[in-house]
Amino acid sequence: MLLIPCPWCGKRPENEFRHAGQAHIARPADPSAVTDEAWAEFLYMRANTKGRLAERWRHLHGCGRFFNAIRDSVTDRIAATYKPNDPPPA
Amino acid sequence: MPPGLTSTFSLATLIRRAFSGTWDAQWRSPDPKPAYDVIIVGAGGHGLATAYYLASEHGVRSVAVLDKGWLGGGNTGRNTTIIRSNYLWDESAAIYEHSVKLWETLSRELNYNVMYSPRGVMMLAHTVHDVQVFKRHVHANRLQGIDNEWLSPGKARVFCPPLNISPDLRYPVLGAALQRRGGIARHDAVAWGYARAASALGVDIIQNCEVTGIARAPSGEVTGVQTTRGPIAAGRIGVVAAGHTSVVMDMAGVRMPLESFPLQALVSEPVKPVMPCVVMSNTVHAYISQSDKGELVIGAGTDVYTSYSQAGGLHIASHTLDAICELFPTFRRLRMLRNWGGIVDCTPDRSPIIGKTPVPGLFVNCGWGTGGFKATPGSGHVFAATIARDEPHPIAAPFSLDRFRTGRLIDEAAAAAVSH
User: Fold this and answer.
1) Among candidates A2, A36, A48 on the partner chain, residue whose Cβ is nearest the Cβ of B259
2) Neighboring chain B residues of A18 at a CB cutoff of 8 Å
3) What angle separates helix B90-110 from helix B187-200, to the nearest 10 degrees?
4) Which residue from B256, B304, B345 is facing A19, i.e. has the nearest CB?
5) Mean pLDDT of B57-79
6) Is B68 in the A-facing interface, judged by CB distances under 8 Å?
7) Residue A27 distance to chain B (closest CA, Å)
8) What count of CB pairs under 8 Å joins A to B?
9) Strand-strand pairing, B286-290 and B149-151
């Protein structure tokens, strides 16, 4: 079980959280204007990175808020967590 | 029996070998040649089956199967070996039933005992929603000509005596869907049997050879791969890399609708025959059968986050054991011997992707998620036809990568309400 540092609540066990997929995917501002390819890209295509990735979590059984994490998908180590509108740390 | 084999297995050869004490290598381990007609990336069951059918049915014998590790060392060697075909949608039922039919004659075709055992797969319903969904499956399967029947809790217990059908359970058994032709097979033997038969037909199986790049001509089509054992040329490449498919496809600049998750399994200490069939419960996440060695083979659910760690959290496995202990109280004193994880590649609609890609000459067979083992023969069979003819096999056609653009999904996730 991962120990996940919520930016608001601090370190909490993984089962307080919901994983919410790849971070920083922006919904097209005008869906009716984008091509089918671009819509499929937004809906379904994912980096599925092996290594350092940015992902969303929600502290469901805690503060309830979404945040982002930088995690290595080989070691599962979390390098950093940050609030939704912050840029990913270098 | 496949052509090209220099020795075959029979009772007489087994007895003779038992006394002579030596066994021949069952497949060649050649160095890679500079070029092949087809390269298959990934020597798991699906990749080896693809190579075998390319050679045996399509006369394409200049084939290399490359693997970064040893053959059958990924999900082929890590799954719980459940075989069934009672899926909801016609497209899914067609491919899984195609596979079950191949399972039924596979040992004879390969001259290799894959220990296919159609002992029945029983899927438990614990809620009103489960009952409605499973009955819908039963009716759909009957229309598709696929056996699937509804059992009352009492009949489920007759079919599987250790099952606890007490109404006092937290998730009581309200009934079950039974596919009698479903069952299990010996996972390693499937990889070994296909490897042996493919090798005899001239397929080169090259282990410890990691693909590090995909070479393309200026006009876009593939020309070969770079590997840790040097470049290898080929005009057609089939990627069958399971959890690592996104990584390999990225080498050709193709983004995939896949996410890779750890999926765990574990086995108990071996005991005498106690579990006559396969029991699955998607609702409480318990999958259990007994191997011929006597171990109870138990499957858990996936972890919630994407990972390539081949491990998974302990709480996921213990959640499954909680369910097993409640459904099968007699198993409570058993100790678990081993647990492990595999990396499964899941699509948004929980159906596989089999077919062509935007890159000419590049084919992909992936997205089998948590249930790929059952499809091994059928998947290899239709993928080989797709590569050989450069057009999708009719059974594979609905599973195109393009369906995520057109929206014509095959939504087995919604059909069963869970991954499977």
Assistant:
1) A48
2) 304
3) 70
4) B304
5) 97
6) no
7) 16
8) 68
9) unpaired
Q: What is the pTM of this model?
A: 0.96
Q: Which residue is it, tokens 């993984």?
A: A14
Given an 8 Å threshold on Cβ–Cβ distance, is A40 in contact with B405? yes
CATH code: domain of residue A86: 3.30.2270.10
Per-residue model confidence as pLDDT tens digits over B208-243: 999 999 999 999 999 999 999 999 999 999 999 999
pLDDT tens profile B327-372: 999 999 999 999 999 999 999 999 999 999 999 999 999 999 999 9
- Dump pLDDT digits (tens) for B288-329: 999 999 999 999 989 999 999 988 899 999 999 999 999 999
Q: From the CA atom positions of chain A, what is the Rg in Å?
A: 14
Q: What is the pLDDT of residue B6?
A: 73
Position B420 pLDDT exceeds 50? no
CB contact under 8 A, B246 and A47: yes
Partner residues linked to A69 by β-bridges = A55, A81
> A28 vs chain B: nearest CA distance in angstroms?
15
In a domain, A62, yes or no: yes
Q: Is residue A80 part of a domain?
A: yes
Q: At what angle do helices B187-200 and B45-58 cross, to 10 degrees?
A: 30
- A-chain residues within 8 Å CB-CB of B256? 45-46, 48
Q: What is the complex's ipTM, to 2 decimals?
A: 0.96
Closest residue to B307, CB basis, from A40, A41, A73: A73
**Separation between Cα atoms, residue B16 and residue B339, nearest integer Å:** 36
Tell me how crowded residue A16 is: count the other CB atoms within 10 A of its CB.
Answer: 16
Token pair 């992902």 is found at A55
Task: Please give the torsion angle defined by the CA atoms of residues B338, B294, B185 and B77, in that order, rounded to the nearest 10 degrees.
Answer: 20
Range of the domain at A66: 17-25+50-90
Joined together, the tokens standing for residue B74 give 């990924």
| A7 in any annotated domain | no
Distances in whole angstroms, Cα of residue B30 to Cα of each of B2, B27, B56, B66, B202: 20, 9, 20, 11, 11
Quote the DSSP letter at residue B75.
G
- Say if B56 is an interface residue toward chain A (CB within 8 Å): no
A71: contact with B, CB 8 A cutoff: yes
Question: Which residue of chain A comes nearest to B318, CA vs CA?
Answer: A1
- Give the number of domains in chain A: 1
- Does residue A38 belong to any structural domain of this protein? no
- B333 min Cα distance to partner chain A (Å): 25
